Amino acid sequence: MFVRNTNGQFYLSPIRSIDIHLKNGYATPITQHGTLLVNNVSSSCYASVYHHSMGHIAMAPLRWLHRAKKLFGLVNQNESQPNGIHWYPKVLNNFVHMFIPYSDTFISTTGKF
Q1: 108 exposed, middle or buried (CB, 10 Å; 0-12, 13-18, 19+)?
Q2: How many CB atoms lie within 10 A of CB 39?
Q3: Is residue 111 part of a domain?
Q4: 61 burial class (0-12, 13-18, 19+ CB within 10 angstroms)?
Q5: How many structural domains is the chain composed of?
Q6: Of 93, 111, 89, which Cα lies nearest the Cα of 103?
Q7: What are the average pLDDT values for consecutive 10-residue runs of the chain, which has 113 residues?
Q8: Does 91 map to a domain?
């Protein structure tokens, strides 16, 4: 895991412990760089994919669409997905499950959202 120090630089740090908190709902924030910084810990936005770079490539069309909408002033700053997951990553993930037999590579997005 990468952690940001007081100088703003990132360094590799071992994971000391993992706490599991189960909550209702599902959120998949998609950022331009595919990363989040929470409590000075850097993490990937692509929770359903084990390889960050693969998730980032798969989400490229969605980022391009957002940039085009922004360029033409069509972005609604208050827009959110009512079910917590955008249709594009949900379709991609379910499509992969239908055609690629490596169930340990992806996590299913089937179920109620």
Answers
A1: exposed
A2: 6
A3: no
A4: exposed
A5: 1
A6: 93
A7: 82 82 68 79 73 84 88 78 71 78 50 40
A8: yes
